[in-house]
Amino acid sequence: MLIQVGYEIAFQLPQPAPMLLMLYLHPTRELTTRQPDRLLLTPSVPVQEYYDSFGNRCGRIVAPAGQMSFRNQALVEDCGLPDLQAPYATQAEVQDLPSDVLIYLLPSRYCEVDSELKDLAWSLFGASPPGWPRVQAICNYVHNHIRFDYLQARANRTALEAYRERVGVCRDFMHLAITFCRNCNIPARYCTGYLGDIGVPPSPDPMDFSAWFEAYLGGQWYAFDARNNIPRIGRVLMGRGRDAADVALTTTFGVSELASFRVWADEVVGTPY
Amino acid sequence: MLIQVGYEIAFQLPQPAPMLLMLYLHPTRELTTRQPDRLLLTPSVPVQEYYDSFGNRCGRIVAPAGQMSFRNQALVEDCGLPDLQAPYATQAEVQDLPSDVLIYLLPSRYCEVDSELKDLAWSLFGASPPGWPRVQAICNYVHNHIRFDYLQARANRTALEAYRERVGVCRDFMHLAITFCRNCNIPARYCTGYLGDIGVPPSPDPMDFSAWFEAYLGGQWYAFDARNNIPRIGRVLMGRGRDAADVALTTTFGVSELASFRVWADEVVGTPY
Amino acid sequence: MLIQVGYEIAFQLPQPAPMLLMLYLHPTRELTTRQPDRLLLTPSVPVQEYYDSFGNRCGRIVAPAGQMSFRNQALVEDCGLPDLQAPYATQAEVQDLPSDVLIYLLPSRYCEVDSELKDLAWSLFGASPPGWPRVQAICNYVHNHIRFDYLQARANRTALEAYRERVGVCRDFMHLAITFCRNCNIPARYCTGYLGDIGVPPSPDPMDFSAWFEAYLGGQWYAFDARNNIPRIGRVLMGRGRDAADVALTTTFGVSELASFRVWADEVVGTPY
Amino acid sequence: MLIQVGYEIAFQLPQPAPMLLMLYLHPTRELTTRQPDRLLLTPSVPVQEYYDSFGNRCGRIVAPAGQMSFRNQALVEDCGLPDLQAPYATQAEVQDLPSDVLIYLLPSRYCEVDSELKDLAWSLFGASPPGWPRVQAICNYVHNHIRFDYLQARANRTALEAYRERVGVCRDFMHLAITFCRNCNIPARYCTGYLGDIGVPPSPDPMDFSAWFEAYLGGQWYAFDARNNIPRIGRVLMGRGRDAADVALTTTFGVSELASFRVWADEVVGTPY
């Protein structure tokens, strides 16, 4: 299956400002990207690329005053299969985890592992079988506990706040699920990228980038999605980190206002190879 | 100058639990450590060492049920000079910072850069000259704003909470100062280690580990200390990270209760070399 | 397409010895691995896992005296398409490469970039159009220059030696091609993994692990294979590094003798999903 | 003790070329640098700084055609003590080493661990007591085996070649010693920096940058110097890596010719503080 992904985003800046960009496909997608993404900037300012400590591909620019817009499009191969299910995946003991994975057990900006959510996690999920079923129980709980509402998005809502407010967008679902996983000693990390409507009824909402998370079970990472809570086809990863603080699509060091925004991720049928 | 540093810490565990330890001198101290630290564990359980993504030396154990105690002592050389002062150190533009430093501009667990502290930072420090004087202005403000009180320590107090509660211990001073620095586009990171009373009147309080922070100015990192707010002699680094969440001395995955605690850092005078 | 990959390898050790293992699928394969690999050790000794600085999944054991065998099998999804071809992929100027990629321009154990191969590279490939065509010219040259001969494998043959001896196995082809690429200022890295006979006539030789390489063109990495020199289907990555010195499948700190060896990578047809 | 270190280096380039620079003090020196180094470039071209995967501070430029010169000077504090001696430092078993240290056991560009030096190492040093005495035995051997001769420097001489040719400069001594250490399962890494004549008779040779190495014993790294083979005062680190291939002071992607070269590292006596 071929999926065309892309976006057009524009900001308005009253004065020049440095920006960090995480607007690329994740390096793990490279070998299955038929038409690589090419970040187009208008006006055309030089981009300095780097990889952050999580392995994400990033860019840096100095945006001039006025409108700054970003456009990108790529054609990616996808096996077209729903998220891998491994219901018997076990949960490693903390002492058996690779050292590099331990950071995904610790508190982070939006995941207050060291809060009242800790006791709550054990009371809610302590009775679930450890491993895959426990992560699934967490997803079920979060899926039902939080009500999705686009109009109630807030850039700095934490897992604890999402738990209390019971409302949020996809990142809030993930932050709460990630926090519960870590509280159950299951490493969990945050993912952001494209997710179209392949295999599900089209959403009436305008498309946005999507968030999901990965849990470390049985020696590897698996994708979970506490918002949709069904296996989905066609996740196209852009960035991974401890939580959304590590993978903001753009970070402006100064004032910028979103002027326009469009994202797409569509199956391409019948393309001649 | 030679400084003897060390500690004795004991925990009580109702049942076996994995623990992460950051109870070592920082690798940057190795070449000036006359008697290296040797972590003694009672009971003697095997320690698996690793370095985390910030370069800190760490250990992992499975602590048995009962009392688990840690003892360490080292003799370190120190030039015996107060913290380096560089009042003319300039502040790099964000676009000129090395990419690896950018992470220290972003929000982290206890440093809510993406909060109301942002506007506050600019209103409080926007008029200070950029660079060293601005970091000093931040330290002055935080030093006066927060009241030190050991009895009001709280393991998960954030910078914003410290700002509102106006009370805390050294880590709270640092988290608030770090957050203000980042809000002023100055990279800042958290440090933990030993700091004795060398060159200052002895403190009446029992000695604890100390926190300070580093700000990136003019192409390198400099130590600052918003609690003491005077140049001090004899900081002996153990760990560095985004904030205290990255450098907890011990992390227990399970229940543990502090049973005893003693830390020392004393100048050794007249030692035969 | 589903591909079943696996191996059975056994060593004979006269006495116990520590071993490093790179016997896992690469983490980038995780989300498309239908039946994850499970490393089986006989005798069953504990494995401590870690990720190396290149992001490869690794294990450490202490192998007892006697026979030590490793068995693994996994079922991976693959889009079933040949290696991505991007004949118009351009070559970035060195000054525009991300900093993290620069290491793949430097000399490494088996790739003597700082040797007479440098002048040779420019004389052989300086007239080829830069970018993809130049990498292809390098592959063509190496493919024709070296004669494949299993019996002439040598664990420490370098690129320069392969150039002179004009004989080798797949790793020698790659080392020479990587060295030429680096000499033309094109970052190149070494890959190891499974490659079955999908889409090509079955090989009469017993199957072995395979080597290929990746070149950095137009902002991303692409797979090349100087030995086969045709786009192939079904590369299943295990490890990546500067050259074969970084991704040895096993490293024994002591004496071990290969006792048996079998690798497979076969398309699975008609599996019920 | 205060040490003034610095250099003036100039190259002649027939045409513009990108360059990598490792011309800074190592970050571990930051907190004891009284007057930080400031890299002056003539002509003044913009420098983009980064840290490499070993933690070294690096710069990137595009040098114009003509003369390109670099000047730097810093004032560093130093405890003024000779290299730390720890004759009872033990040698960890390979299985007890931190995972991040394992890379310093493997072959690298100039350190052919996987060569005939392996058997030689065991025959020469297998009878020495493991740990510190074995590293010292290696230094003694190399110190006597190789004759220092500036005129016989060669940029790509390997440890094996140095062993056979029995002549070289400081980097050759270190590469051979490092290779022997690794062959004895002792992690070893290469260091480059300043080393003046403090405490020893002044050298008649013009001063150059110096090389030394570090061996991992008893849980930490210690400095060794197979060329001088006596504890020295005042090593000021600039870069660390697997071997010299990782820490070239300058790397030009194109043609450059050394036009002038001067290095200094002198104790500053009687400076008003």
From TrEMBL, chains A, B, C, D:
<protein>
    <submittedName>
        <fullName>Transglutaminase family protein</fullName>
    </submittedName>
</protein>
<dbReference type="Pfam" id="PF01841">
    <property type="entry name" value="Transglut_core"/>
</dbReference>
<feature type="domain" description="Transglutaminase-like">
    <location>
        <begin position="162"/>
        <end position="228"/>
    </location>
</feature>
<dbReference type="InterPro" id="IPR002931">
    <property type="entry name" value="Transglutaminase-like"/>
</dbReference>
<dbReference type="InterPro" id="IPR038765">
    <property type="entry name" value="Papain-like_cys_pep_sf"/>
</dbReference>
